[in-house]
Amino acid sequence: MFSLLPYNTFALDVHAKHGIIINALSDLHFPLSEPYIILGRGSDVLFTEDFSGTALICNIRGLEIKRVDDEYMVRVGGGEILDELIVQLLSRGICGLENLSAIPGTVGAAPIQNIGAYGVEIGDFIDSLEVCDLSCGKVFTMDKTSCQFGYRDSYFKRHPEARLLVLYVNFRFKAQPELKLSYQGLKDQDLNDAAAVREQVRALRARKLPDPRFVGNAGSFFKNPVVDAKTVARLREDYPDIPVFTASGGRFKLAAGWLIDKSGCRGITHGHAGTWEHQALVLVNRGQAKPHEIVSLAKYVSSQVAMRFGIALVPEVRLYGRGGEISWEMLQ
Ligand code: EPU
Fold it and tell me: pLDDT tens-digit profile of 141-181?
């Protein structure tokens, strides 16, 4: 048995049958025995029970930086820690990722969800990915377009059957830094450089989000629902102060945290699971929680939101069961 405790930030005491720490592709022997799952540091996953197969932990390291004209091309091993990369880049004057400061997890996992925070998504800076097709061991490069980045979405998330392991991420940064300060909490703050933005983001996150080193959690548990104008109009009749943000394609993004909060679910505790007092969208392990306690809390929260607002929440975290990844519907 292989403990997944260090590989899920929910800090659930779950196991895989086997585990392989991948420091180089040569650590894998093809064909791989089925089933298997790919993990970085497990900061966006919920194990609903033990996993009956092999956990592949990507730990490929490396950082190469090249200046090409007015850009930096940066190649990073998928197993590098994202926040450590941001520190390294800033120390060399390379800016862009500072808005993503303090997000737990690895560089290779970041494009899978196209992680984002404070007005920046990782896909904005990705040039290409070097991936391995685990069904045969073939290595190839995917350009940004083929990654199909969307809101917390990518080709990889939509096509788990493609079985692609991210070996290296190639980033492209402009040599002349452009700070992204449009987000509430960053604008009108007198932030003059990327280091100041990083500190402000760290402070904002620390105020709202629990540190997974001390409180098990996987960040936002649900995605922010994207709805049409008719739905916004319906909601505004009863809730004139509902936060609404414009999304692409003439649609609108609602704040799942606000919906959960207004459904009376902020700071609640069910068994050993709960929602965070300062950000209702974050489900937490209050200590010794079992997977089923997080699952039943997630179901309870989504049912309360559905009852009050008629909006269906969908998890942002990826769910895993005994045989591999499972859908939210499979848990209902
Ligand atoms: N709100 C409440 N009550 C709550 C939580 C939020 O009323 O309990 C309201 C806030 O006041 C605000 C709105 O809801 O008006 C949105 O909240 P917030 O600004 O905290 O952002 P979010 O939409 O909840 C998203 C990302 C976070 C990211 C932040 C900052 C998603 C699902 N979540 O959160 O990402 O850090 O914006 O950019 O898109 C993550 O993905 O794990 C994550 C933490």
Answer: 999 999 999 999 999 999 999 999 999 999 999 999 889 99
302-314 burial, b for 16+ CB within 10 Å, e for fewer?
A: bebbeebbebebe
For the sheet containing 45-47, what is the strand order?
Answer: 45-47, 318-321, 324-326
Tell me the helix, strand and coil percentages in the chain, rounded to 5.
Answer: 30, 30, 40
Which residue's alpha carbon is at the smallest distance from atom 16 of ligand 1? 255
Residue identifier of the C-alpha nearest atom 27 of ligand 1: 117
pLDDT digits (tens, 9 = 90+) for 77-97: 999 999 999 999 999 999 999
Mutate to test the pocket of ligand 1, among 281, 284, 309, 311 (most ligand atoms within 8 A of CB): 281
Is 49 catalytic? The answer is no
Comparing C-alpha atoms, which of 37, 89, 90, 26 is closest to residue 60?
A: 26
The CATH fold assigned to 2-58 is 3.30.43
Amino acid at 218: A
Among the CATH numbers 1.10.357.140, 3.30.465.10, 3.30.379.10, 1.10.10.10, which is that of 63-174?
3.30.465.10
